[in-house]
Design goal:
Helix content is 73%, strand content 6%. It is mainly α.
Length: 214
Amino acid sequence: MKINVIYILTISVFLSMVFFIDSNEFDKLLLDWMNQLIPSSLQEPMSFLTKLGSGEVMIILTLVLMGFLYFKREKLYALMLGVIVFGGLFLNLGLKLLFQRERPGEIRYLEVFGQSFELASYSFPSGHTMRTFLLFAFIIYISYLFITKRAIRLMSYAIAVFCISVVALSRMILEAHYPSDIIAAISISILWFIICIRVVPGLVRKYSRTQAPS
């Protein structure tokens, strides 16, 4: 029942943000409020911290963590992480192409590992935010499952929440995204994450049964 409520809430929030694509009043209000609270001196450190959510960094971190889980014989969780993050990349790209919202600043093109593609990088929803949320939400998830020492587990939670927050905030401070892009990215990421952790284990078990010798 609780999961169904989360599904409804996340979909409702995402659709609410879709409403603001053609009207920037909501985004202007939030950005004006942020500009009053956040000093301009944060621009430089945020330019560095926002790189944490880049496609290159997220892909490398994901592959390293998948390798570690596979080495630890946690193949299910390695697979789950791959589906969550790489599936999330394609989900984000599909949503960007569907809504084709222009960015607040100049147009950017899709770039991975220094290679630029002739494909516009649209604004809605934020790719940096989605990638970062999905990876670090998974880190929170496996920390809960496998880390027994409370202090270390809480530290893992804190680092993960910090990384998600700072990347999401940096995208708005650097005017790379509208606030509604960030909110939409977080809401759809929560939905995708929950679907993956609920569906992937069941599919793996079903596949294992079909492959088992009769």
